Automatic annotation (TrEMBL):
Protein name: Precorrin-8X methylmutase CbiC/CobH
Oxidoreductase among keywords: no
Species this chain originates from: Methanohalobium evestigatum (strain ATCC BAA-1072 / DSM 3721 / NBRC 107634 / OCM 161 / Z-7303)
Chain segments annotated as coiled-coil in the UniProt record: none
Alphabetic keyword roster: Cobalamin biosynthesis, Isomerase
BP GO annotations: cobalamin biosynthetic process
SUPFAM superfamilies listed in its UniProt record: Precorrin-8X methylmutase CbiC/CobH
Pathway terms, separated by semicolons: Cofactor biosynthesis; adenosylcobalamin biosynthesis
Keyword Endoplasmic reticulum listed: no
Domain spans labelled Cobalamin biosynthesis precorrin-8X methylmutase CobH/CbiC: 48-234
UniProt similarity note: Belongs to the CobH/CbiC family.
Amino acid sequence: MNTKSKNSQEDSGDDNLDEFVEFTTDIDPELVEICNDSGAQTKEAKAIYMTSRNIARKIVGDETPEDRIRQRCVISTGDPSVAEIMKFKNDPINSGVDAIKKGSPIFVDIRMVKAGITTKGHNCDVICVLDRDENAEIAHKYGITRTAAGFLKCKDEIEGAIIAIGNAPSAAITVCRLIEHGVRPALVVGTPVGFVNSAESKEMVRNMDVPSITCEGTRGGTPIAVACVNELVSIAHEKQECE
């Protein structure tokens, strides 16, 4: 088959996608119009987001910025009870929003968290600490996890930054050690998940004298960490548009 005929078939295939396209929710133009999530770019995505948001508002309430974070976490997990375990310490909303408006970097523990954070509505660099110790030299030298080693590698860069940990308790513990030695991130979002040190590491974060958003117990994970950061981006973007 020559290149021309191959390209012709490919183009033809793209032109015949109508039979595969089906909306997954009713597209209410009003929902599309009021959607304030910069990550939702198409009409269907905006309608899905706002339909979910309206359900979450009824579950969680909608009186404070903290409620907005809780709503997003409920949406991201499909679990209304997640709203009850979210904890906010030392004015984390304002601290996080200010950092985002300044374009402060966002350091994350794993690539899945980085992939989930929206690239729209902010100018912050999102940095996975695993990429700072690519050959795991520090991890092997000290016998620690790669995420913990990654934060040690970044210890001179996280002053005034946002830290988002969605997976690794060891990373949260390491960040707490750095804070004890004088490092002051703008915000720590700590939602590591699991049965080993997860609850304990999040309690350590809450006991630090820095702004933090965490969840209680063994539950947590990437979706919650990403939801917290993305909602802060939305709030920051709204504030910038009003200024």
